[in-house]
Design brief:
Elements (H helix, E strand, L loop, with lengths): L1 H37 L3 H17 L6 H10 L4 H13 L3 H12 L8 H16 L2
Length: 132
Amino acid sequence: MKKIFLGLIFSLALITQVQAGFFTSFAASALANDLSKGGVPASRIKKLNKYLWNMHKSGKYDKNYKYYLKYLETHTENISYLDTVAQVYLDKGNKKKALAVYEKRILPWLVIEDQRTQDDFRNYYIKIKQHK
């Protein structure tokens, strides 16, 4: 009887620890994810987009553009800013990556935009596809 009782207590303690570990790990992952995405001020993203767009327009890129490009790509869901990312990839000869940004990150969101925005971004996408 004593062995059964000890076995039951041990099993209960083990189950509690496993569940606590799982939920603690789950909560920590969720918190880390929120902090990594939500910690970037919108004003920084806006400035970064303008900085990259100006390089795109002038055709002159500084040596750090790749860092800024990757940062903008991973820290925004704004389709206008993602278009900047796609245009820079295209400028630098990576048409495949530019198309991927459109296909995976921009085009799926157009359904909730007004008709003019949909038309504009679809036209930008077509220009990228047709680029030699």
